[in-house]
């Protein structure tokens, strides 16, 4: 059902509702209006990387891992699989009267905030630090969720509008002071793309204030969203964010004032309880019935577009429950894990050969951890394959695998009654009795995540440092001291400083939180069944870089992310090695696209990502070249092929201090390669970028 028809039906329905009934539909837990045939509906559902918190579902790699694929087509396929499972679950559960939270068709995903600072605990929910990459992947994800049918398959939501990326501990009272230049250049492009290109059905406001005004009732942001960008869907508050107006931001005094501020600004739906005070605000003359009607029409329009109001139904009503976690979706999750894994060092140890690698020692707190597979906002898989299990399955009957947990994730002992470092001796013993060591280190959602949802209580989910927890650093020191050929695998959703161990390990793999099939995919890469091909969607800094950046609460982009960082990173944005060797053999540059000729000069097939960066000579441009195009490819050994890669039009503009996007200098350098065009990429084994001039 198109929006025009859905809106007409919503207006007609609202016209038959009482004031109380209309107000009730603006809560996330909207009750039934039985006399009008409106069933109860809970708007709250999550789908960052699979249906979350709602029972069994396919668990894909966490969003930051999906970003590492640099594969928007894959993101669209994954989102389509998620929406198929959502329809299957909705059809089955609603037929039994189950309309509970996390069982609906309105997903508060994706999270397209910019991962501006590596300390932010929720960064792994995003697509990384680059506005263009985030725009492309977010657009694909929304299109996959919402579908292209007669009715909308599920409803996607762009969150959190707008400048929201930590600190978590003070988000309910924090005022993000952001320059107009940084807003336009960094924080808003992805939201604009999802509104205008993907036609996202919902936008969620953030907890914090932006330049003094609460994000969920910010006149400037709302004007840009609806009037400048043409957003036609509904706007939802983050959960209990409107309550923050009077309890934490102190921009209002009582709930009725907060209701008035949010409703009149255009916040249609309240995740929380403050809109229970709508009728009180109405009785006080602070809002009108027309204010309530406008919001009610918007939210009911979405339900009509989904085909879950009225008698017309949806073409998705027949999707069976058997679609949930079906073999095709599990295979897609495994493919995503393969494409997302990033190889940042390989001295020749990888890929391992089961016939010659001898006894393998698998060591580390994340080696056999399901939590290290799933990130946060995750569903429940019926089967998980940890990294240890993936290695055991692949090597079964071929070589011996020894295992030691080595240490707890962050505490000083595994067993409460034991002495400190109670698994270190076992880990050293395993290393001594192994020919090859696989050391699995990292974090999970208890150490980086959302305020209130994690065990990292001192920092409310954010990180204080980029170093691994002390017990893991001590474990790594002692295991590496044994001098055995070692692969380090990092399971984390953000930059971790591995500089103390990088030079002492033969190979380093970053697997992120790779999903329920992650262990199988990592094993496939370790033993050469697949070539790694992921690329870093964030810069991996050394811990000392934190002192060179603005304070965490400062939203200035100065010396942050690859576009502005002046130092030399540990592993640069866009970087990732493969088991082959591709080269750029030709580049023909244009303003709309570039033709790039690539040859696989290696001895095996591999996936790769062509990355195009533009450097504008204008003083208003970022100091470093910016990502302007990318294309995931696959080439067999010895094959040479030409590819056309589209370019981001924004790459040829600059933003002035007033936030105006204006034409660039007219003189640009285009770089083509398989990583950012910087010295560190070359130093780590990446190809020197090929360049061409554009004017």
Describe the fold and architecture.
The chain is α/β, with parallel strands linked by helices and 695 residues long. The protein is 28% helix and 16% strand. The protein has 21 helices and 23 strands. Helix 4 (72-94) runs antiparallel to helix 13 (327-340).
Q: What are its keywords?
A:
single chain; 695 residues; alpha/beta; Rossmann fold; Immunoglobulin-like; 6-stranded mixed beta sheet; 4-stranded antiparallel beta sheet; globular
**CATH arch. level architecture of the domain at 328-564:** 3-Layer(aba) Sandwich
Q: Main beta sheet: strand number and arrangement?
A: 6 strands, mixed
Alpha-beta content class: alpha/beta
Q: How many strands appear in the DSSP assignment?
A: 23
Question: Could you name the CATH topology of the domain at 328-564?
Answer: Rossmann fold
Main-sheet strand order equals 9-14-13-12-10-11
Terminal CA distance reads 45 Å
Number of helices: 21
Helical proportion?
25-40%
Approximate strand percentage: 15-25%
Rg calculated over all Cα atoms:
25 Å
Q: What would CATH call the homologous superfamily of the domain at 328-564?
A: Glycoside hydrolase family 3 C-terminal domain
Report the principal-axis shape.
globular
User: What is the CATH top level name of the domain at 328-564?
Assistant: Alpha Beta
What low-confidence regions span 5 or more consecutive residues with pLDDT below 50? none
- Mean pLDDT over all positions: 97
């Amino acid at each position: 059902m198109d929006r025009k028809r859905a809106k007409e039906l919503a207006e007609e329905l609202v016209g038959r509702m009482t004031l109380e009934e209309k107000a009730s539909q603006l809560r996330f837990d909207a009750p039934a209006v039985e006399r009008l045939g409106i069933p109860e509906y809970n708007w709250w559902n999550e789908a960052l990387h699979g249906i979350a918190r709602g029972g069994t579902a396919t668990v894909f790699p966490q969003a930051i891992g999906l970003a590492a694929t640099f594969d928007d087509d894959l993101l669209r396929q994954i989102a389509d699989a998620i929406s198929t499972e959502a329809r299957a679950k909705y059809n089955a559960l609603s037929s039994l009267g189950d309309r509970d939270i996390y069982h609906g068709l309105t997903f508060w995903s994706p999270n397209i905030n910019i991962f501006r600072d590596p300390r932010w605990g929720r960064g792994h929910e995003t697509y990384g630090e680059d506005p263009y990459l985030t725009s492309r992947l977010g657009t694909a994800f929304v299109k996959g969720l919402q579908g292209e049918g007669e009715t909308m398959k599920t409803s996607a939501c762009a969150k959190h509008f707008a400048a929201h990326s930590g600190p978590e501990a003070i988000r309910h009272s924090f005022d993000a002071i952001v320059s107009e230049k940084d807003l336009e250049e960094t924080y808003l492009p992805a939201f604009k793309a999802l509104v205008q290109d993907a036609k996202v059905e919902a936008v969620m406001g953030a907890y914090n204030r932006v330049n003094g005004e609460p994000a969920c009732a910010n006149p400037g942001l709302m004007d840009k969203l609806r009037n400048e960008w043409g957003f036609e869907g509904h706007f939802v508050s983050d959960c209990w964010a409107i309550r923050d107006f009077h309890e934490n931001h102190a921009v209002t005094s009582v709930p009725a004032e907060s209701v008035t501020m949010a409703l009149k600004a255009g916040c249609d739906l309240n995740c929380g309880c403050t809109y229970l005070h709508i009728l009180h605000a109405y009785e006080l003359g602070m809002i009108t019935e027309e204010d309530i009607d406008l919001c009610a029409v918007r939210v009911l329009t979405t339900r009509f577009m989904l085909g879950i109001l009225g008698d017309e139904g949806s073409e998705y009503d027949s999707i069976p429950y058997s679609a949930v976690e079906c073999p095709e979706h599990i295979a897609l999750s495994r493919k995503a894990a393969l494409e997302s894994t990033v190889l940042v060092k390989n001295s020749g140890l990888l890929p391992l050969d089961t016939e010659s690698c001898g006894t393998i020692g698998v060591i580390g707190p994340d080696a056999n951890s399901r939590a290290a597979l799933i990130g946060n906002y995750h569903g429940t898989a019926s089967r998980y394959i940890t990294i240890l299990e993936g290695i055991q399955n692949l090597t079964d009957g071929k070589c011996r695998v020894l295992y030691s947990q080595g240490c707890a994730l962050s505490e000083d002992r595994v067993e409460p009654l034991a002495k400190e470092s109670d698994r270190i001796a076992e880990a050293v013993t395993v290393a001594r009795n192994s020919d090859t060591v696989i050391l699995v280190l990292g974090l999970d959602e208890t150490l980086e995540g959302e305020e209130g949802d994690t065990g990292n209580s001192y920092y409310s989910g954010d990180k204080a440092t980029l170093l691994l927890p002390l017990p893991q650093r001590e474990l790594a020191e002692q295991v590496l001291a044994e001098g055995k050929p070692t692969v380090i695998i990092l399971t984390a959703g953000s930059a971790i400083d591995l500089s103390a161990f990088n030079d002492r390990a033969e190979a380093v793999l970053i697997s992120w939180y790779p999903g329920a099939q992650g262990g199988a995919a990592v094993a496939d890469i370790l033993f050469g069944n697949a070539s790694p091909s992921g690329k870093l969607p964030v810069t991996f800094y050394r811990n000392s870089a934190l002192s060179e950046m603005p304070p965490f609460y400062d939203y200035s982009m100065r010396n942050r992310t690859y576009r502005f960082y002046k130092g030399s990173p540990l592993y640069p944005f866009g970087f990732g090695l493969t088991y082959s060797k591709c080269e750029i053999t030709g580049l023909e540059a244009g303003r709309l696209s570039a033709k790039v000729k690539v040859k696989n000069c290696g001895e095996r097939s591999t996936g790769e990502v062509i990355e195009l960066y533009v450097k504008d000579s204008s003083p208003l441009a970022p100091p470093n070249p910016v990502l302007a195009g990318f294309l995931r490819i696959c080439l067999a050994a010895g094959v040479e092929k030409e590819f056309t890669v589209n370019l981001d039009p924004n790459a040829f503009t600059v933003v002035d201090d007033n936030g105006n996007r204006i034409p660039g200098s007219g003189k640009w350098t285009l770089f083509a390669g398989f990583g950012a065009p910087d010295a560190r990429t070359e130093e780590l084994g990446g190809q020197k970028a090929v360049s061409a001039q554009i004017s």
